[in-house]
Structure formats: structure tokens, C-alpha cells
Amino acid sequence: MLGGIILFVVGGLVWLGARSGIPLGRLPGDIHLDGENVSFHFPLVSSIIVSIVLTILLNVILRFLNK
């Protein structure tokens, strides 16, 4: 249940970020291909940036909790 709440909050933050003008998912390096009947979108650079930010944030939180 806690995992669902966390995913809900993170999804809301991503949605609010998109509404405020943060181009997450539309950065240079994100892959977007359009065909006649199909489209494919893979936010490669956005995923890397989110991963780096979350790694730094979790390391800072864990460092404060271990003191």
C-alpha cells in the first residue's frame, strides 16, 4: 500500500512538472519515432536525469538517517 501511495505522489509530481513547463520526456536525446499506424516513445535522457537526481536525493537522505 505504501508503494502505491509513493507511485501516486511521484506521478503527481511528474504531472505537475509537465504542467509547469519542465520538458521531462521531451529532452534532446529522448527517442520518438512515428510511423503510419504506430508511434514509439522512449525517454532515454529523461530517465537518466531522473535516475541521477533520485540517487543523489536518496544518498543525502540515508546519510542524514545514519547519523
> What is the residue-mean pLDDT, rounded to a whole number?
89
Radius of gyration, in Å, reads 16 Å
- Tally of separate helices: 2
Q: Structural class, please?
A: mainly alpha
Shape: elongated
Widest sheet: strand order? 1-2
Name the helix and strand elements from N-terminus to C-terminus, one letter apiece. HEEH
* Alpha carbon gap, first and last residue: 29 Å
Strand content: 5-15%
Residue stretches low in confidence (pLDDT < 50, at least 5 long) are none
The helix content is 55-70%
* Major pleated sheet: 2 strands, antiparallel
Describe, in short, the structure shown.
The chain has 67 residues and is mainly alpha-helical. It is built from two helices and two strands.
Task: Characterise this structure.
With 67 residues, the chain is mainly alpha-helical. It has a domain at 25-67. Helix content is 60%, strand content 12%. The chain has two helices and two strands, in the order αββα. It has helices at residues 2-19, 44-65; strands at 31-34, 39-42. A two-stranded antiparallel sheet has the order 1-2. Strand 1 and strand 2 (39-42) form a beta hairpin. The radius of gyration is 16 Å and the shape is elongated. The model has no long low-confidence stretch (mean pLDDT 89).
